[in-house]
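Blackboard transcription, Thursday session:
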Amino acid sequence: MTCGQVKDAIPFYYYGELPPEQEEELEAHSASCAPCNREVENYRKFASSLDEAELEPSLGLLSECRELLAQRVTEWERPAPKANWWEKYWQEKWKMDFRVPVAALALLTIGWFSAKIYAPQPSNAAIISTVRSVEPDASGHLTIAVDDVQRRIVSGSLNDDNVRRLLLTAARDESNPGVQVECVDALKKMAYSSDIRATLLDAVQHDPSPSVRLKAIEGLKQFTTDSKVRNALSNVLLSDSSPNVRMEVIDLLVHDGSMVGVMQNQVRREDNSHVRVRLQKALQQMNASEGVF
Amino acid sequence: MTAILTLTAVPERTASLETEIIRAAQSGDPEAFERLVRTYDQSVLRIALNVLRSPEDARDVYQEAFLRVYRNLHTFRFDCSFHTWLYRIVTNICLDHLRKRKVRREESSVLATADGLVDRMERLEEEAAHADPERTMYNRQLGGRITAALDKLTPRERVVFELRHFQGLRLRGIGDVLGTSEEAAKNCLFRATQKMRNVLGDLV
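(Written on the board underneath:)
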């Protein structure tokens, strides 16, 4: 055994965990090696110092623990009895004919309260209620007309007819522009489909929300060669109230030489300086003058 | 060092008596359960107190351990000795406490009493105080250093050290209690003693 091996083995030697032959080797080594012998003694001192610091639970703590445990055990429901206890249990004072209806009643009661507590409330879950009218009568009673709308979840791709129909309907529902934008955004991926493109064209020309119109323009970018799209966009450029929308249309039409006349027309009447500058640049890009000769 | 003879060498007669007590407790005999608790509860409390160095935590471990025994005794199938089964429960709870404590390090060691604020460990030492003031002072100093040294150990190292050094369990038995090998317990003990000596080297 080397000094290093002895040093590592000393804790196990102290605890009597070394195999007998290693124990003998260690003892033989430390008998002839003063540093290792000192190391063994040092470990002994270290270990006995730890013994001094061992904590002994006081009798007060022990009796407190016992009392508390006794209380908690009596409070705790006993574990399910084993088979022999089960048989004895059945023979005791509770009779079958009494226990069953009591248990059934208990279950019904629990179910009823659970339903009261956990049932979804109409106001925050599947049913959406909208009050349409309130009519008081002479006695103070109120008659309230309520529209209940039930919410459901539909999922699927744009190829799914049901999904597509819902999107097309919602894209025209001007009461909720936020949902309209989401619908147009989803639909624009399939603008090559004629029904979807018709919806986008309708939105870009007639929808009151500039956000919806801008989203529809995005969907029509790829189809400026389509005469219907071109005509719709030129109408938007000439009549749309939103400068942002007009700017977007300019960017789309700048590549179409047939739109020079529309732009020359608009540059004269445009009252927004930014849009006018953009129109002038577009005409330069199209090698066209601002004026009409 | 405290030697727990019931853990290391249970005479055959005692073992069969213990088996009878366990079976009676499994059948729902409250007196048998109480006897079982009283056989082991001082050891359980001592382990918890020395591992966690906090009487409050030791009391919690005692409660939780024996309540688990009470609830699960019917599942004990004598596949191992009862003390191994019980110590497995106790050490698992202690390990949980130590891990949680690592998270909330800021836990105060000060306890509010009728006499004002006192250190928990000082109170504990005073409860078991010797009349000799010098010795009390030395113990207090040493106790503080040992607590600091124990804090350097991982929860597992701490439990292994406690079971080997203070409870006198063999490494093989410790491996059984912790659900690991004797070799792993040995490595744990080695690391623990190295760390302890590094911290306490100049004091002992």
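Lecturer's comment: The radius of gyration of chain B is 18 Å.
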